[in-house]
């Protein structure tokens, strides 16, 4: 693990010096910086005071409660309407396969679409439907098919937790703050894992109505938290744009680290065309270099005097772009 997953490109033993420089330079676009061994108390307290830190803690807690409850008592739920123990184990096989599919597909789609919040919401919908089905029908052999369909709907929850961790890390800069935020999110996850199994007790068999109802509420809370977090991140992006304008920078920064090579080339071509039009315009008017009216570039791949490697937090660095 230490060899294959280094803390920073500078510590990657499988990269030569040139490759390390390329990897580090790629980090410039997303303003995340590289690992620092210096503990910054101010960054730690900023993590504690940052609203989005606690939004992610609440989000991971809300998903960890049903996640661990389902994982621990899933066979017990199936056994409530499937009497044979062997059949209970057999019906759990497709659930395990669907877990792998949910994690893989959600990770790929979030990377392809460059969004996290929307994917999390989409993954929350099937479990809510599944819990609703399991609450609406008696847990007996006569309703086995519909109850199994409801139980299989729960499988998408496994893709949510990795996305929350990724979303949190992607929107937190500053080495100390990033580590502190990750620790708080992990604590929230652990707390949820402790609470989850307590919602299902043998005394409530076979309906387990308390656990199922609570899980519906928690998945709904995750959706609400995603909306709140996305709105807050959008507001932070607007604030950073205003700060960049006040400092003489362009309002919108183009983060090339999130794009494919083809998209970067396309945006570079657009940028070059804008620059060429600006030079032609200035040549005709004999004025200083400026963009033609209505054609000012909306993208800037790298801001002047970049703060990318200054170990600034996401709130301190006006060039940081929040992703939602």
Shape: elongated
H/E topology pattern: HHHHHHHHHHH
For the sheet with most strands, the description reads: none
**Could you name the ranges where pLDDT drops below 50 across 5 or more consecutive residues?**
284-305
CATH architecture field of the domain at 44-230: Up-down Bundle
What is the compact description of this entry?
This protein is mainly α and 324 residues long. The protein contains eleven helices and no strands.
What are the salient characteristics of this protein?
single chain, 324 residues, mainly alpha, Growth Hormone, Chain: A, 11 helices, 63% helix
What is the element layout, followed by pairings?
Elements: H1 17-30, H2 41-49, H3 51-79, H4 85-91, H5 93-113, H6 117-136, H7 144-153, H8 160-170, H9 175-195, H10 209-246, H11 261-285
What does this protein structure show overall?
The protein is elongated. It has 324 residues and is mostly helical. The two termini are 30 Å apart. Helix content is 63%, strand content 0%. It contains 11 helices and no strands. It has a domain at 44-230: Up-down Bundle (Growth Hormone, Chain: A), CATH 1.20.1250.20. It has helices at residues 17-30, 41-49, 51-79, 85-91, 93-113, 117-136, 144-153, 160-170, 175-195, 209-246, 261-285. One of its GO terms (molecular function) is transmembrane transporter activity. The chain crosses the membrane at residues 54-78, 90-111, 118-139, 145-168, 180-200, 212-233. This is Thiamine pathway transporter THI73. Keywords: Membrane, Transmembrane, Transmembrane helix, Transport. One of its GO terms (cellular component) is membrane.
